[in-house]
Amino acid sequence: MERITCAGSTFVTGGLIAAAVIDYAHILAQQGEFDVIELPTRRTDGSAGRARLLVGPTTQIASETVQLASDELTDLPLVDELRERAARLRRPQRPAVDPGRHAEDVEPWFDL
Predict the structure, then answer these.
(1) Of 15, 93, 100, 112, which residue is 20 to 30 A from 37 by alpha carbon distance?
(2) Domain boundaries, the chain
(3) For residue range 51-76, what is the model confidence (pLDDT) as tens digits?
C-alpha cells in the first residue's frame, strides 16, 4: 500500500494505483494541463473510501510505502485508464492540416 499526500491531505491506496497517479500527475505537469482523478482508498478504520484529486502543474503530490494489515487495494481498470491518459499526453500531437489547402491559398490576417 502507498500513502499519498496531496494538497495537505493524506490517504492510503494500492501501490499500482499510487504509481499510476504519480506518473499521470507528472506528465500533466509537464504538459501544463489539469485533470480530476477518482481513486479507491483505505480509511484509518480499515473501511473502503474514495478520493478525488485535482492534479496538474501546480499540484504537490508524493507517495510513501506503508504496511497495513488490510489487503492491497487494486483497481486495474483505473490503473489502465491512467496509463492510457498518460500515454496519450506523451504522444506528439500533429497539427490539423487540410490537405486541400496550401499556404498561398490562405489569406493573410494582417494588413501591410
Answers:
(1) 93
(2) 2-91
(3) 999 999 999 999 999 998 888 999 99
